[in-house]
Structure to design on (724 residues):
């Protein structure tokens, strides 16, 4: 079952490449066929992706470890790609703007590609990760990260298609609003992620906040996005500046996710063990 | 408040400085930027380390600015305090206006002229269309207020929804203050320390920092420490079975596991680390031509038969010295009946090392017992944190997902038996949502045409 799950995940990775190309074709050739094909293919891929995650979950029970598949970098990347696709599909459904897919779906592909380079073996949980808060914490954080990722994709689209040349156009205003709304979703979920993380830390280490690099970087990300949300109430921060803000915020997300573990782990041992 | 700085008092200027969103914006970004430094520089290390690693100039600067313990530095705390003041002043500044909007009678806005989002004509008189419009508006936004037009035949109606959502942002801001309060209460009234306790040992104090002891008012006994492993060798569980005792009486038993702490008299105990320490050591002592065995408890003086005292400082279970020796080695402290205490190294009984001083101590039996490192904490502020966090998330939902929306429907006679319908609206956020509502109203009213 673990092997089947892994095979499906390889297939899913290249399916994400495929749907990225379809969304790109949709943007370039403006033919309805590509758009519909892309949406159907993405829905199918998400279904297979979901199946693979559930299979992995079941497999861990068969091996006697029995834990949710959120316990290491491999599993978190697979889940990250899943959340990006989910959030993107919700936005496509709400806005009917399929162009966004050409910017959002490659992110899911790259997350999966990175995961494929890692060891996929199911391992038992270390004592610190044995907590009921694991699932709530990981789901909140990664749905939040996905919200920020889609916002960054929208921002990239805003800048690449030079919406700032006509910032009052209907499309530019819609993109501006979407960049903001996806950050709001991400921000609320990141807050929930930090809160569940604090509750967990409080029961594992006896302190809800210890200024550990992972915690601190999640706070830095939170502060940057909090500033971005306040910029809404200041003149001149819409459009291009908002798009850049969202991209910088996503840079902080990526550093919180990867950078802390890769670059700062030497100072604090748990950072390598956590998600 | 005056816009002319020269005519405003210092108090007013301070107030308007703290009432600005630009200040909040800047403070959030400054806090983010400075927090980065604390994750790059090692924290809470000895001063020598910074001087050695970064040189005397940069190391001195790091120490001078408190960057070695940045999150507790005065200037960092000052930034957080400024943010708190900013939040309070901003809220106090805007809240009266918002309360006025909430208390205002919506009917007062019926006469407001707004650009129409949809404008079309329907057959019939204004009153014919009024019923359907009233129903549609009520379905979208609730209670409908209306009045006849003054200058022409017709009427205007208005409904609003979610005016209370304007308070959402203040809910969020107050939650931040509640969290700050909780953190301060924890800092002032709480304490945290640790307890290294050997299996079988009973302790009634914890250690704070390096050497400061604090009495608990009750005691804790470690009955058993267990380390379990998975089949592949990874640790699966650290468990300390403990008993809490009050005045020497057993009150409560509990198993401490990582992620499952125990609470007693408001103080929390967490499984943090483990190790091995010397247990009972049986020694053979030879002095003044006599040899006798004695059983020594670890980490304290034990009186010896015939006078004097001895204690075990440190035991190593198995020391290899090539051909010369292999076996346990202990560092002992010995106090003769008269004279100064001395340190003695003890080897297993029957070893070939010659006696050096007035006494020879040999190890007959060495017991190694596991010890458990417990994190101990008392934090009366922690519930403020959790309540603050809940209020914050609820506040976000109110502030971001509920909007104060107003929609006007104006029905006006257009002559020749037709009625002009104008739909307009206003919202404090999410224009797209408002436009959808107006679109639905438009479709609804025009549907019968």
């Amino acid at each position: 079952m673990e092997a089947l799950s892994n095979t499906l995940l390889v297939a899913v990775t290249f399916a994400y490449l495929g749907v990225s190309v379809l969304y790109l074709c949709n943007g370039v050739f403006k033919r309805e066929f590509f758009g519909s094909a892309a949406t159907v293919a993405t829905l199918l891929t998400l279904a297979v992706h979901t199946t693979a995650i559930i299979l992995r979950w079941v497999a861990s029970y068969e091996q006697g470890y029995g834990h949710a598949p959120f316990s290491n970098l491999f599993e978190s990347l697979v889940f990250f790609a899943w959340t990006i696709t989910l959030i993107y599909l919700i936005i496509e459904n709400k806005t009917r703007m399929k162009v966004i897919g050409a910017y959002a779906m490659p992110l899911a592909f790259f997350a999966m590609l990175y995961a494929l380079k890692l060891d996929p073996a199911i391992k038992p949980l270390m004592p610190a990760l044995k907590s009921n808060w694991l699932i709530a914490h990981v789901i909140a954080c990664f749905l939040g990260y996905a919200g920020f990722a889609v916002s960054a994709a929208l921002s990239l689209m805003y800048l690449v298609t030079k919406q700032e040349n006509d910032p009052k156009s209907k499309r530019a205003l819609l993109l501006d609003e979407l960049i903001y709304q996806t950050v709001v979703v991400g921000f609320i979920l990141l807050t929930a992620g930090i809160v569940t993380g604090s509750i967990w830390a409080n029961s594992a280490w006896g302190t809800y906040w210890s200024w550990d690099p992972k915690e601190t970087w999640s706070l830095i990300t939170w502060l940057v996005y909090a500033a971005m949300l306040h910029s809404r109430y200041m003149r001149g921060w819409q459009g291009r500046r908002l798009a850049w803000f969202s991209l910088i915020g996503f840079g902080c997300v990526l550093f919180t996710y990867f950078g802390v573990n890769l670059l700062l782990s030497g100072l604090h041992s748990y950072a390598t063990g956590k998600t | 408040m005056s816009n002319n700085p020269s005519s405003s008092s210092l108090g007013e200027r301070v107030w308007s400085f703290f009432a600005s969103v630009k200040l909040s914006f800047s403070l959030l970004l400054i806090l983010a930027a400075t927090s980065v430094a604390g994750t790059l520089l090692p924290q809470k290390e000895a001063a020598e380390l910074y001087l050695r690693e970064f040189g005397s100039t940069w190391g001195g600067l790091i120490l001078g600015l408190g960057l070695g313990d940045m999150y507790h530095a005065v200037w960092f705390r000052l930034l957080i305090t400024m943010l708190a003041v900013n939040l309070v002043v901003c809220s106090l500044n805007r809240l009266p206006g918002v309360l006025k909007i909430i208390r205002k009678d919506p009917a007062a806005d019926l006469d407001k002229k707004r650009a129409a989002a949809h404008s079309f004509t329907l057959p019939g008189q204004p009153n014919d269309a009024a019923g359907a419009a009233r129903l549609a508006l009520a379905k979208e936004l609730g209670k409908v207020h209306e009045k006849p037009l003054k200058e022409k035949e017709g009427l205007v109606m208005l409904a609003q929804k979610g005016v209370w959502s304007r308070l959402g942002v203040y809910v969020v801001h107050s939650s931040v203050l509640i969290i700050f309060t909780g953190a301060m209460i924890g800092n002032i009234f709480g304490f945290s320390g640790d307890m290294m306790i050997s299996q079988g040992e009973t302790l009634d104090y914890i250690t704070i920092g390096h050497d400061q002891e604090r009495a608990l008012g009750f005691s804790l006994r470690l009955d058993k420490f267990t380390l379990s492993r998975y089949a592949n060798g990874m640790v699966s569980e650290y468990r300390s079975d403990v008993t809490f005792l009050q005045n020497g009486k057993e009150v409560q038993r509990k198993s401490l596991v990582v992620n499952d702490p125990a609470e007693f008299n408001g103080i929390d105990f967490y499984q943090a680390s483990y190790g091995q320490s010397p247990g009972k050591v049986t020694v053979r002592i030879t002095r003044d031509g006599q040899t006798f065995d004695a059983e020594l408890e670890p980490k304290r003086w034990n009186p010896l038969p015939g006078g004097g005292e001895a204690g075990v400082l440190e035991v190593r279970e198995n020391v290899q010295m090539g051909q010369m020796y292999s076996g346990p080695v202990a560092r002992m402290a010995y106090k003769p009946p008269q004279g100064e205490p001395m340190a003695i190294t003890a080897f297993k009984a029957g070893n070939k090392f010659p006696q050096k001083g007035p006494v020879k101590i040999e190890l007959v039996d060495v017991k190694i017992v596991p010890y458990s490192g417990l994190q101990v904490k008392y934090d009366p502020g922690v519930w403020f944190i959790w309540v603050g966090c809940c209020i914050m998330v609820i506040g976000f939902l109110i502030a971001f997902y509920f909007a104060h929306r107003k929609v006007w429907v104006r029905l006006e006679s257009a002559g020749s038996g037709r009625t002009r319908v104008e739909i307009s609206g206003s919202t404090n956020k999410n224009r797209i949502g408002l436009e959808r509502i107006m679109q639905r109203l438009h479709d609804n009213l025009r549907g019968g045409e």
Notes: Chain B has a mean pLDDT of 88. The two ends of chain B are 54 Å apart (CA to CA). Chain B touches chain A through 48 residues (CB under 8 Å). Chain B has four domains: 5-95, 104-162+403-447, 189-274+373-391, 277-372.
